Every structure is written in C-alpha cells, then in structure tokens.
Amino acid sequence: MTAALDVAVTRRIGEFDLDVAFTMESGISVLFGPSGAGKSLTLALIAGLIRPDAGTVLINGRVVTDCARRIHVSTQERRIGMVFQDGMLLPHRSVLDNVALAVRQGDGRRERRAIARSWLERVGAEGFVDRRPGSLSGGQRQRVALARGLAGEPALVLLDEPLSALDAKVRGELRTLIREVIVSAGVPAVLVTHDAEEAEETGDVIIAYDDGRVTGRRVVERPTPPRDGGDEPPESGASA
Amino acid sequence: MTALVPHSWLNRLGIPPWVWNPLSVSLRAAFEATVVVAVVGIALGYLLAKGRFPGRGAIESFFSLPMALPPTVVGYYLLTRLGGPGPIRNAEVSLFGHPLTFTFTGIVIAQIVESFPYCVRFSRAAISGVDPRFEQAARAMGLSQWRIALLVTLPLARRGIVAGVAMAFGRALGDFGATMIVSGSVPMATTMSIALYNAVAYGPHHQAMVLAFVQLGVALAILFGVSRLGKVRPW
Question: What predicted TM-score, i.e. pTM, was given to this entire model?
C-alpha cells in the first residue's frame, strides 16, 4: 500500500537542526512535542513553504520534494489543505468566499460556492456563511478554517496547532469535530500539537518530537467508528 | 480648461476664472499624474516588497531621489532631458509633434516624477506588512501568484496603498518647483501654485490671498481624507 505521506528531510536554521523521517498511512498522525521541537517546521517542509537542505517528501507516492533530483513541486501543486493556529481567514472576504476560494473542482462560481456551503454545513458553520471572519469567535473561525482546508479535495491536510488559541471548552468540542470530519472525509491528516490530551483524543498515530528529532511513534488504540452511511462526505467533497 | 464647466455656472457660483483656470489645471494634472503613479507605483512597490533580486535597494533609492532633491533640481533635469537636444526630445517631437516642455503634458510628467516615490514607498511598506501566513494559506489553497496578489495581498495592504496614492495626489497637486521650471508658467499650463506665485510677484495681491486659501482648503480635505482612511475599519 502506498503511504499517504513519506517524509525524510533535514533542515538547518541557525543553531537549530531538524533531521526527521517518518511515514503515515490513512487517518490522523499527530506530531507531538514541546515548542521549538521542529513540528511546525516539518509541516512547512511538507507543504513546500520551505525547502529542506536534503531529503524527500512523497504525498500519496508522488514525489513533491527530492533535493538530490532538484524536484520541488510548488505548494499550489501539492494538493494540500492547511489549517493554521489563527485560522488565517481573509478578513475582507465573507466566510463563504473564504471557503469557495479553496474549492478547486466545479465549473463555475455558483458550483464552487455550493460545494463550499456543503463543507460549511459539515463543520456546523452554516449559520454564518455571509459574515466576515472578524465578527466570528475563535472557535467559529477554526470551524471555517477546517472547512477551507478540506474544500479543495486535498490529498493531505496539515493542521498547525489549530486549537491552541482557544479556551478549554471550545477546544474539546473542536477536537471531536476535527476527528469526525477528517475521518469521515477519508483524508489523511497531520496535526501538530504540544497538548498531550489533544494528541491522544485526535490522533491515530502519535509521532513524538524533541529537539528536531523523532523520538517515538505510537499507535493510539481506539474502536473503529461505525460507517453507517449517515456521515458520508458530499459527492464533490474531499477524498483520500 | 474653463470649458470643463460652463462660464455661466462659474459666474453663478461666484468663482472667478483666475481661480477656476489654475484650479482646474492643477486638479486635472494631479489626477492624470496620480493615475499613472498609482498603476506603476503599486506594481513597483509590490515588486520591491516581494521580489528577491540584486539591486533592489538601488532601485528603491533611485526612485526615492525626488523626495530628497529640491523640486527645482528635478525640474532642471526634466527641462534639460525633455527639452534639450537628444533622443528623448526627438521621440517627443515624432510622437506629439512638439517637445513636451512648456505644455500641460510636461506638467503631468513633472508631477509624476515628484509624487512617484510617495506611492512606491507607502505601497512597499503596506505590502511588506501583510502577514505572510495569509499568502501561505492562499498558496495551499492552490491560488496562483497573480490571484494571491490581487485577492489576498493587495486587499490586505489597501489602507496603506490608498494612503500612498492620496499622498501622491497631494504632492502632485502642491508641486511648484519642478512644475514651474518645466511649464514656464505659460497661460494654459498654470497651476494653482504658479498662479499664487505670479499673484504675489506681480499682483493683484488679493488674488494671492484667495488662491492660497483655496489651496489650504484642498490640502486640508486631502489630509482629512487620509486620516479617515486610517481610522475606518476596511472590513
């Protein structure tokens, strides 16, 4: 079976030296470790926002970075979805526009907006599609950011500490939502966190980081969720 | 220029031609100069903010020169380049049938040169100030560089950019030194500043007072507009 993600990269920034290698299959892999361990840097290298000094990145078997062969597929061409800590929603666009901009499939504006709307419904954000992000709470913004991250039919979703700016109650709600939506969409995801509880509740696999190295890997035991057809992704939605 | 507004209207409004003529020349020249400055200046500001190429600092310094030079020096170089013998003057004659010095177009060129640095520097600073994570998110969404510039970067930087364009308009409208040297104060290319100078130098002096007051009002309106841009939340 082709790995959803295969990473083996090194990158030196000042005194910090990142040297990591791991693979992941489907589900949610959590990069867990203290701040400054290199988790977010790894995410940026996977996304192609930063080039490694050496190594390779393969997404679904496709080489997107290979320093030896001078291959560096642009971020736009990697078919990834990203969810940032602060959402990074465009403040001058409505919630619906923010998500519709990420939709790659669909022929016209109307179709893209319909797809965006269906994703907003899936994350429980259908009540504020016409509002601007500035008028939303932190939790609402992250729901929209999650919809945007998935709306483009990505091959891989990268979530960079998406819950760390939220209070405990909202964090708990969104942990469940993130897991439910990503698992039901069938999109492999990498989530970065320094919160042990979040790693346990959200991830299928926990990859421990410390000082720029992978120090451990553990599969989280959890019952297989029933797939009764009641939570299928929309036809135009993301797929693995 | 008075043809822009019928004489009867001006009479009814009590605006004498010696105010309206230079005011309309000033407004029209500043507007035309600002359109050119906005298009080219924002593009150059974007390039300077986002581009990584050798000579970036030198280019920015070169285009900022008019901010540091006395306007008369800028005017002198424009007069000698546009009006003196050489390939530039030959090109003007073949394109327009005459040199551009002592014409309305010459005024517009002088004002473009004088106001250009304000637009470039404000735009570059505003574009540099946009959080790069917005652009990273847009790249992950698959947007091309063009779409990121048009849909993400420029809208997020728009307050600073608009302020820069407004400052450029104000600078163009208020220019005296470069405009005076390039236009030579010929009748149909007399701006408010030049008309004021003529009124002070040759009279009548009450006209100088009125012309100065009108310019004061226009400058206050521009500054008020710029300050409003800084206060109003754009979204």
Answer: 0.81
